Predict the 3D structure of the following.
Amino acid sequence: MTPRSHSVSPAAVIVLAAGEGTRMKSRTSKVLHTLAGRSMLGHVLAAAGALDPRRTLVVVGHRREQVIEHLRQVAPAAVPVVQEEQGGTGHAVRIVYEHTGPLEGTVVVTNGDHPLLTGETLRALVAAHESEGNAVTVLSTDVPDPTGYGRVLRDADGAVAGIVEHKDATDEQRLVTEMNVGMYAFDGVLLGEALKRLTTDNAGGEEYLTDVVGIARSDGHRVGAYKVADWVETQGVNDRVQLAEARRQLNERILERLMREGVTVVDPRTTWVDVQVSVEQDVTLHPNVQLHGATAVAAGASIGPNVTLRDAVVGEDALVRDAVVESAEVGPQATVGPYAYLRPGTRLGRRAKAGSYVEIKNSEVGEGSKVPHLTYVGDATIGEGSNIGAGCVFVNYDGVAKHRTTVGDHARVGSDNMLVAPVVVGDGAYTAAGSVIIKDVPPGAMAVARGQQRNVEGWVERKRAGTAAAEAAKRARENNTQEGDK
Ligand code: UD1
Ligand code: CA
């Protein structure tokens, strides 16, 4: 074949994901198990996306309803193709060709269970394939123990001759350490022709996609292998032990990138960051921190120890420790925790505070306002510069519906208040400690809503005679009398 000029987009990426994944022992399809905030299939599709393919086809079989639904959510442009019976990797690709008709140009095939593979490696595979003018280019790597995998066979002159499956290999062939990763770039037309010639005449009784390599070679076409230097990237996942290992590898990769970008990670072993999270320069991640989903942490913020953020936005120089923040926003220089729970819809303004044992849901806390201790704030709008005393509850639920509370600017809600929504505490208003506020408090007013205190003199000595309290009361009374005598 004549070498073609450098790459346009591949005609198609085909992802094989019909297998049963028995060793996962799971109700969930193997390729839907997640690591770093994405399914295995999602990682593979993200890597494939780096090729900008004209079409993406995903072969589905076992638990296909789950996989199809997942594709609809995360990759609506990807087309599922159903393989009713799993007749082997070659059979799977043949089914795709029956669906698409002839494909011209480069066709990339990849397994759905290799979440560590990067887009750069796939691009390098396609670039090598096209610049060498190959009919097939196999992604390969040298592994310490290739047991169970297909081996890349080479001629005396080093040219790729074919792939033999472990099951079908001779003892001598099993000594080969160059393994077939399960990713390939093909000439689409030649692949279409070769697929028609696959047999099931092998130890697996399946149509092997790998046989296309030998077929192309014996037809006199060029075949090649693109070797990945770092075999870790090519690791597949067949069980949950390998899933944990892949998760750790991916996390290390993400943390290393962040550290190189100027993020301090105090304890990489206990810090977990999802792929889509963004963390700016001079952020410090203390031990035992988990950043999930679409979380974004701005420059200079200090996170942890012991913090879980999910879909959270944290502003510059904010401080968050011993806290859980979900679908919530923490403003610049705001402080959260220790022991705080910010739930969906919460927005803490600049320099605002959510202190210890504080839960806030669907509420705005304005610039510089503080909710320092032991408080539940639900469905509230709190203005700027206000303070909520210790032990308050924003009573937002009447058993049927939720209602909002509004606290104005520079207001002072006393300790141990119940603000029974819907209710408004006006700008600059105060409420007395222990109040149950059920009526609006006008701006600047002091609301007192609690029982009047009544002291029943001498009650303890009369009603609890002989107790330590009564003795103490007696002594205090006698001392007082003596003081009075002086
Ligand atoms: C295959 C390769 C082997 C390679 C290994 C790397 C073949 C014949 N062998 O092994 O050389 O070292 O991958 O992991 O291709 N699948 C389908 N439909 C099927 C069969 C498989 O969609 O009918 C999917 C599976 O879900 C999986 C992928 O194809 O994602 C690979 O299948 P698997 O059975 O794991 O690979 P092997 O055949 O063992
Ligand atoms: Ca496999």
User: Anything to note?
Assistant: Residues 1-5 have pLDDT under 50 and may be disordered. Residues 16-19, 59, 83, 86-89, 91-92, 111-113, 149-150, 163, 165, 179-182, 208-210, 236 surround uridine-diphosphate-N-acetylglucosamine (ligand 1) (CB under 6 Å). The chain is about 20% helix and 30% strand. Residues 240-260 form the longest helix (21 residues).
